[in-house]
Amino acid sequence: MVIQFGFVTMFVAAFPLAPLFALINNILELRIDAINFAVNFRRPVAERAQGIGVWFDILRTMSWFAVLANSFVIAFTSEFIPRYKEYFDSVEPYDFNRQYFFVLAVRLGFVIIFQYFVFFTVGFLDWLIPDVPRKLEVKIKRENYVARECLTRSEAEASHDLDARVSGTGGSANSLYISCENVNNRSKNPSIAGSKLGVNRT
């Protein structure tokens, strides 16, 4: 899959139909893998992960090289720059004259401008689109709030139960469970949870 991503992104300017064929291949491969995992293979053991690990850095590096490769392919294989400067209308179109080096400089300038334009666009979209959606961020804050309140209440009630047992008045064996349930029920109230989390719900 990573090799396919590299070929599609690096040489899409040379073969524009490559993404379409890659999409068709991935759809078929997805269905075949689904049938194999559901019928032929033993169910794998699920493991939690924060992301794809080092493969994210590999794919990002390949994307940078893809921008570089496509900029050179567009600049040196297309003829819009020589036609713009009427390079092929000269008497010696393939001679290393002054016009040839001027067109070469224009091509290299196009490579630099194209790269900075793509990198600026990618950076702007990365800044504009958050990595974590707003709703998910609120839920994460709520879970952290519930965990902190549960820990605080459980420690307080555990200390109270210990004092009660020492004094001989008894204590609650399910204080931790009851405390966590109370905190969870309180956090489900939008007015309480929003005020505790500092989230403006207007």
TrEMBL record:
One GO molecular-function entry: chloride channel activity
Q: Is this entry keyworded Transmembrane?
A: yes
Transmembrane intervals? 6-28, 62-81, 101-129
Could you tell me which Pfam families the record lists for this protein? Answer: Anoctamin (PF04547)
Quote the subcellular location field of this record: Membrane
Protein family according to the UniProt entry: Belongs to the anoctamin family.
**What PANTHER family is this protein classified in?**
ANOCTAMIN
Name the UniProt record assigns to this protein: Anoctamin
State the organism of origin.
Desmophyllum pertusum
